[in-house]
From TrEMBL:
PANTHER family: LYSOPHOSPHOLIPASE-LIKE PROTEIN 1, LYSOPHOSPHOLIPASE-RELATED. GO terms for molecular function: carboxylic ester hydrolase activity; palmitoyl-(protein) hydrolase activity. InterPro entries: AB_hydrolase_fold, LYPA1-2/EST-like, PLipase/COase/thioEstase. It comes from Aristolochia fimbriata (White veined hardy Dutchman's pipe vine). It comes from the Eukaryota. Pfam families: Abhydrolase_2 (PF02230). One of its GO terms (cellular component) is cytoplasm. Belongs to the AB hydrolase superfamily. AB hydrolase 2 family. Residues 47-254 form the Phospholipase/carboxylesterase/thioesterase domain. The keyword Hydrolase applies. This is Phospholipase/carboxylesterase/thioesterase domain-containing protein. The keyword Lipid metabolism applies. Keywords: Fatty acid metabolism, Hydrolase, Lipid metabolism. GO terms for biological process: fatty acid metabolic process.
């Protein structure tokens, strides 16, 4: 598969100073200033406010990912509110203890389906994500119009945050992520959370989070009583392609609810 430019490429490498960057050539940041509750749709109805939460990968930052929202121009998402938080800077084991933005610890690179997991650090990060969601819901956004998306480490956190949130959300989108906890967490997933749809995208040429780690996602979700839409990209390495983002837009816009 040929990756259509522009591509947002984020690479993880087990070196002494591991960083993740986004190649955003020819992209620009589009800021949305309106936070009104509803806006007119093309059909004359009114679209409810939606909330898009994007979680970045290891060593990256929220602001560096803001160009992603320029791919989302559908009328159904005209009233979307975006949030690109940054992870706190902490020592990361796979990088020899170097301090960098990280949602939780990662012990080894490449990440496989059997890699050790930092469940305690993960659950603390989940609490912070839930606080962001709760704040937006308290501001008037229907939980079913909340979409959590993330790449790599952010994708793993996305999965955990959606599964452990007590209500049904609009959806969770995992890009090049993995299952960051053991099967014991299944008992903590509420019946409402099991209704949240999951979109999982993974490059088959990924040498950082191996494709096998992504493939382990659907069986885990099935064991949890959930299903997900899994998309494999044959020539894609550890990065996000334009094709994936356009697919995400289509997936989200069909799930945004309208207000009467």
């Amino acid at each position: 598969m040929r990756v259509v430019a522009p591509t947002l490429a984020l690479f993880l490498k087990p070196v002494s100073l591991l960083t993740i960057t986004i190649l955003a050539t020819s992209l620009f940041v589009c800021f949305f200033s309106s936070r009104q509750s509803t806006v007119p749709s093309e059909t004359g109805g009114r679209m409810a406010r939606s909330f898009m939460l994007w979680l970045h990968g290891l060593g990256d930052s929220g602001p560096a990912n803001e160009p992603i929202r320029t791919f989302f121009s559908s009328p159904e998402l005209r009233n979307a509110i975006w949030s690109f938080p940054s992870a706190p800077s902490t020592p990361v084991s796979c990088n020899y203890g170097a301090v960098m933005p990280s949602w939780f610890d990662i012990y080894e690179i490449p990440i496989t389906a059997e890699s050790p997991k930092d469940e305690s650090g993960l659950l603390k990060a989940v609490e912070n994500v839930h606080a962001m969601i709760d704040k937006e819901v308290a501001a008037g956004t229907n939980p079913e119009n909340v979409f959590v998306c993330g790449f790599s480490q952010g994708g793993a956190l996305t999965l955990a945050s959606v599964l452990l949130y007590p209500k049904t959300l609009g959806g969770g989108a995992v890009f090049s992520g993995w299952v960051p906890f053991n099967s014991s967490v299944i008992d903590k997933i509420t019946p409402e959370a099991k209704k949240t749809p999951i979109l999982w995208s993974h490059g088959m040429a990924d040498r950082t989070v191996l494709f096998e780690a992504g493939q382990a996602g659907p069986p885990f979700l099935q064991q949890s009583g959930m299903t997900c839409e899994f998309k494999a990209y044959p020539d894609l390495a550890h990065s996000i392609s334009t094709e994936e983002l356009l697919s995400l837009e289509s997936w989200i816009k069909t799930r945004v609810t309208s207000s009467s």
